[in-house]
Hints:
Order of helices and strands: HHHHEEHHHHHHHEEEH
Shape: globular
Strand order of the largest sheet: 3-4-5
Helix content: 55-70%
Strand content: under 5%
Structural class: mainly alpha
Amino acid sequence: MPNRQKSPAAVAEMAARSVLNKLTPDNFETMVSQFKSIEITDAETLNTVAKVVYLKAIDEPEFIPMYIDLVQDVHDHLPCAGASDGEAVSFLDCLKKLLNDGFMNGPAPPPMDLSNEDQETKDEWETKISRRKKGILVLAGELFNQGFSQSEDIIVRLDNLLDRDPIDVEGACNLLNHTGAKLDESQCPALLPVVRRLKDVAGEGSLPARLRFKVEDMVSRSEDMWTPRREEKVNPRKHTATKLASSNMPIVATPADKVVTDSKGRTITLKKLGSSVSREEAARRAAWWDDAATPNSTRRKL
């Protein structure tokens, strides 16, 4: 069977996936350089590469700031390509179009009929789609914060979320959480009406307590220059576990007092251990212990 030659778009897609899968803060400059070297010759290839970045970003909302940094570094270096209507489109244009489509139509549905799948598969896809919905909003917010879109674009999105049936209060709060400070800084006149709409929705009494508290947090932050209402507390157990895991010191487990101690005397409470453990195992068990102490949490299997 003869070998089929891959299209330029397929080759570029593989190269982009390879770069993003390896991308970390430590190798950022090297990976960005490799991304810039991807050969783009037409609009199909440009859109394919933009789609790889878009899907990777909304799949991993917590890493979107790093992907935005990549966009900042590469969008001026990647060539523009001619679209079907004859106009030149850029990498950023393609990314924005994908984002707009995702915002209006939601994430792509599963590639299979979930009614024929088991409950675990259904739950996995439900979690994935929920994460992608959040990722779309975070990506829109971070693009705005970095100057790639206008305040009017964010207000339109916020109004759209509040006009939906049912109203997407959580989505509006998530988007405001990322853009409120920048909108306020730019003195956007449409911000206050959006906050008032959220406040009115919360006052109707039909929201679950979790969403009502979220709205109250947004309203409180809007009145306090968008500073967080509650400071994020560092979990000392997790913090110590991270230090222990990265330490080169040997770790000794003492079953009697359920404490892991390194040679410098640093300790961390664990579930009872019967023997010495590695640094990685100590950190893993510490994380498990932390989850076990949290109500309604899912415990990791040891």
